[in-house]
């Protein structure tokens, strides 16, 4: 089975391939320029992306959206995570959280279209933001919060882990397993 994934993020594409391959699902890259809404929830954005892709005539496709959320702020940065990071970087994030709760979570949703049927799956990875910016910080392309996010149950940031170690904490991995179960039923 082939499942096109409408993403331009190579890291997301590799994770999808890794998780879905054991289910017999081969993930192919589908590079589309989709408009990302700046209102609503992660699920809302994912559904809107799916509407755009479906309007192009695809019958089988997967789209996703994700963001990081700070407990100190109501639903923020959320769907604006990429734009917020591009605007304020690590120093700005640290200033936002100065004197505030460091608790945070990644939240992501995947929408799937499979032969006319649609489904949306979501999950979270809880954790916290480091207290200080690491001196050797190097933003990961497509995953700028990984070097400052420590998942619950570990003492290391996601950036300090191997891809295999990250998988035990990955909300996307959990969601993709739900996708695989849904498709193979």
Write a brief structural summary:
The protein has 185 residues and is of the alpha+beta class.
- CA distance, first residue to last residue: 13 Å
What is the CATH third-level topology name?
Maf protein
Average the pLDDT over all residues and give the rounded result.
95
What's the number of domains?
1
Secondary-structure element series: EHEHEHEEEHH
Beta-strand content? 25-35%
- Are there runs of 5+ residues with pLDDT below 50, and where? none
Which characteristics define this entry?
185 residues; alpha+beta; Maf protein; 4-stranded antiparallel sheet
Q: How would you describe what is shown here?
A:
The longest helix has 17 residues, at 81-97. The model has no long low-confidence stretch (mean pLDDT 95). A hairpin with a 2-residue loop joins β4 and β5. The chain contains 5 helices and 6 strands. The chain starts with a strand and ends with a helix. It is an alpha+beta fold.
Q: Can you lay out the helices and strands and say which pair or pack?
A:
Blueprint: E1 2-6, H1 10-20, E2 26-30, H2 42-54, E3 60-70, H3 81-97, E4 103-114, E5 117-129, E6 149-151, H4 163-167, H5 171-184
Parallel strand pairs: 1-2
Antiparallel strand pairs: 3-4, 4-5, 5-6
Helix pairs in contact: 1-5
């Amino acid at each position: 089975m082939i499942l096109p994934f409408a993403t331009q993020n190579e890291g997301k594409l590799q994770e999808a391939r890794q998780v879905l391959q054991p289910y017999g699902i081969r993930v192919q890259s589908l590079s589309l320029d989709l408009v990302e809404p700046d209102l609503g929830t992660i699920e809302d954005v994912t559904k809107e992306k799916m509407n755009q892709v479906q309007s192009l005539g695809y019958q089988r496709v997967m789209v996703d959206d994700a963001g990081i959320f700070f407990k100190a702020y109501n639903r923020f940065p959320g769907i604006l995570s990429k734009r917020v990071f591009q605007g304020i970087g690590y120093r700005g994030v640290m200033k936002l959280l100065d004197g505030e709760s460091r608790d945070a979570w990644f939240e992501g949703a995947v929408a799937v279209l499979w032969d006319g049927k649609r489904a949306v799956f979501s999950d979270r990875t809880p954790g916290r933001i480091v207290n200080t910016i690491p001196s050797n910080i190097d933003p990961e392309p497509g995953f700028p919060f990984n070097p400052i996010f420590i998942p619950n149950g570990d003492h290391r940031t996601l950036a300090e882990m191997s891809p295999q170690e990250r998988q035990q904490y990955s909300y996307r991995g959990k969601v993709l397993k739900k996708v695989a179960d849904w498709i193979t039923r």
